[in-house]
Amino acid sequence: MSGDSKRASTLAVPVAELLRSPGAHRALSLQADLAGLSTTDAEVLGPVHLGIRLESSLGGIEASGTLAARWRGSCRRCLAPIEQAVRQEFREMFSVSPTDEETYPICNSEVDLSPMVRDCLVLALPLAPLCSQDCAGPAPDSYPVDNTGIAAGERLKDSRWAALDALRITR
Ligand SMILES: [Zn+2]
């Protein structure tokens, strides 16, 4: 017996019992290694932690909960490496006979959570990560402050004030 074939099944949850009793629910705490999952700007560093509630409805299972993972990427402005945590809430439907693309399938009385977790994580990862919200980029000097519109030298002399001055009477 070589080659443990457990890798694909860490997020596969048997739901035969749940499906038999609509309204029943089950809470699970799972962990899966999805390292390598990435977008153009961020890469997940496994493992992904999953707090999930499965609730049975007619012909389907509603999965809701929170997933948490760490990711790494580069700051969009200064390219400094970033490593941060991401948390994402989810609520998705699984069905024995999915009728639309937003419903995940239930196969062999099992709910495979990995496609859902991947979809959620990809959406949760930042599109343009920053090392900090006010990161000024690699060379702050290359963003000169433009003051030319506020030239303050030309102060108009208002002749009405001159007139008042002239009217002022010395006692
Ligand atoms: Zn930065």
Layout: helices, strands, pairs:
Layout: E1 12-14, H1 16-20, E2 25-32, E3 42-57, E4 60-74, E5 81-95, E6 103-107, E7 110-112, H2 114-124, H3 159-167
Parallel strand pairs: 5-6
Antiparallel strand pairs: 1-7, 2-3, 3-4, 4-5, 6-7
The structure holds zinc ion (ZN).
Zinc ion binds next to loops.
Shape: elongated
Ions, cofactors and other ligands present here are: zinc ion
What kind of sheet is the major sheet? 7 strands, mixed
Low-confidence stretches: 1-9, 147-156
Question: What's the total helix number?
Answer: 3
Fraction in beta strands: 35-45%
Q: Can you give the helix content as a percent range?
A: 10-25%
In the sheet with the most strands, the strands line up as: 1-7-6-5-4-3-2
Q: Return the average pLDDT rounded to an integer.
A: 82
List SSEs in N-to-C order: EHEEEEEEHH
CA-atom Rg in angstroms: 30 Å
Structural class: mainly beta
